[in-house]
Design goal:
DNA-binding protein, 9 helices, rod-shaped, about 200 residues, about 0% strand
């Protein structure tokens, strides 16, 4: 089927009814044929249209839908139920034209979005850790592990117990020297005197 022949006869009427918004079920009932046959006729007509013409027609139709959508959207937002139904019908038609009603394109779109969000989260975590350079390698790994568990909906690992800190013993000799300095006493003088006494005893 080529040229204007695709718009002649019953098939032409089916095509015109479809592009005017009639459902395949309604078209099938009107022409007393099966819904499957309506789908075959529509596919045959689509296939007969050159690719360039289909692309141009699709762009024009999308622009028309956008104009219609902008016209009824304010009323739908204001609470007009009829306008809301019109908006839903336009959106459904637009989704079919863009093939957004198919499961596979939607799944791919969601996967790409998740990949993008994951990359952004990773960059944000890296920037946050870089802003605290005093963190050790172990602390950075622990922070990233906890963040990953949270994103996956898992319980973050328990924080590691802090390493024991040994308390430094007071340096009595240092305190003694400070005391001697405060009193004007030479701390080494007593040591020399003790050494002399030891020599006399020998």
């Amino acid at each position: 089927m080529a040229g204007p022949e695709r718009l002649e006869g019953r098939n032409g009427r089916i095509w015109r009814a479809y592009i005017l918004g009639a459902t395949q079920e309604a078209i099938a009932a009107e022409h007393d044929i099966s819904r499957q046959r309506v789908g075959q006729v529509l596919e045959e007509i689509r296939s007969s249209i050159p690719a360039a013409d289909r692309a141009d027609a699709a762009l024009v139709d999308l622009e028309r839908l956008d104009v219609l959508l902008s016209g009824v959207m304010p009323a739908a937002i204001a609470g007009d139920t009829q306008a809301a139904r019109a908006v839903l019908a336009i959106l459904e038609r637009r989704a079919k034209m863009l093939r957004l009603d198919l499961e596979e394109p939607l799944r791919v779109t969601l996967e790409r979005r998740l990949d993008l969000e994951g990359a952004l989260i990773g960059e944000a975590l890296g920037a946050a850790l870089d802003a605290v350079p005093q963190l050790s390698h172990e602390q950075r790994v622990a922070a990233l592990t906890a963040a990953q568990a949270k994103l996956l909906g898992e319980e973050p690992p328990a924080p590691a117990a802090p390493a024991p800190v040994e308390e430094s013993k007071p340096d009595l000799m240092d305190d003694y020297r400070k005391f001697c300095e405060a009193e004007g006493i030479d701390p080494d003088e007593d040591d020399d005197q003790e050494d002399d006494d030891d020599d006399d005893e020998r």
